[in-house]
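Structure (tokenized):
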């Protein structure tokens, strides 16, 4: 059972009688459907619908919720939550010095303590540990290789905050958006995209016969940019791509490249979206 310590992660506790109601009204994820010892992906959006902060959310004690996010954005997320809290009876605090780690491959890491929760983004059993965990015997690179192979994107290596919609990074596919829960910040834009089926940018798996170039490299086909490479692990990576342009390239048998490397894109096998059947106008 590999276990890796994630030094670049931090946690924020939101507790109190109004904690869940407060977060339910602003976050994308439906907290009413969040089980015990389960971590779901979610986001706090700008009113225009783009992701300002991404995180995993899980339950922590009585009337408490835990947000696990990138360490470098944790303080900003706390400030943003405080801005929205108003008169809600909720305490918001970053948990300094709390160790975050992850285990995978089997379910023996699961415990009855709420300090260990299952990461719902991956199909195989993966567990997040907060504060205590089995001894680390794997690296962050090992974890990211698994995340990449599973088609799970995260801000930083895969996309910049304030530059992606939830659909772009598959939050709609990962139960990270509560379309039936009612209003949340940015809900109108996200719901319109869902109902109209207008999501054109999606996370795709990228593979090649040789090592991929650095994250941020454009995916090109026929002289056009079709996407941008994100996380990379050797010959495998993730990209956020225009699926209409990728489909056109595949139908035409045209090469898709990242730098000088020919690549093969694929939709994650667990995802429910497909390539568009008809071409989408470039100015649409």
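Design, position by position:
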């Amino acid at each position: 059972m590999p276990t890796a310590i994630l030094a670049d992660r931090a946690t924020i506790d939101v507790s109190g009688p109004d904690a869940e109601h407060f977060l339910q009204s602003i976050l994308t994820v439906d907290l009413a459907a969040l089980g015990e010892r389960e971590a779901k992906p979610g986001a706090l959006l700008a009113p225009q619908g783009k992701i300002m902060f991404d995180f995993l959310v899980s339950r922590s004690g009585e009337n408490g919720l835990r947000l696990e996010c990138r360490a470098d954005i944790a303080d900003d997320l706390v400030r943003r939550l405080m801005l929205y809290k108003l008169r809600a009876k909720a305490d918001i605090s970053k948990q300094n010095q709390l160790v975050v780690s992850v285990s995978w491959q089997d379910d023996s890491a699961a415990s009855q303590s709420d300090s260990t929760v299952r990461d719902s983004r991956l199909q195989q059993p993966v567990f997040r540990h907060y504060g205590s965990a089995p001894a680390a015997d794997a690296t962050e690179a090992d974890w990211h290789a698994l995340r990449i192979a599973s088609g799970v994107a995260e801000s930083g290596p895969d996309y910049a905050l304030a530059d992606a919609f939830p659909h772009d990074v598959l939050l709609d596919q990962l139960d990270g958006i509560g379309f039936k829960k009612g209003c949340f910040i940015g809900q109108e834009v996200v719901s319109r995209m869902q109902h109209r089926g207008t999501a054109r940018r999606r996370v795709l798996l990228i593979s090649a016969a040789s090592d991929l170039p650095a994250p941020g490299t454009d995916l090109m086909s026929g002289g056009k940019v079709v996407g941008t490479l994100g996380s990379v692990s050797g010959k495998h990576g993730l990209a956020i791509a225009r699926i209409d342009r990728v489909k056109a390239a595949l139908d035409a048998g045209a090469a898709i490249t990242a730098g000088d490397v020919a690549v093969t894109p694929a939709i994650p096998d667990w995802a429910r979206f497909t390539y568009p059947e008809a071409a989408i106008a470039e100015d649409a």
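Reviewer-requested clarification: Residues 74-85 form the longest helix (12 residues). The chain has two domains: 8-97+139-192, 200-266.
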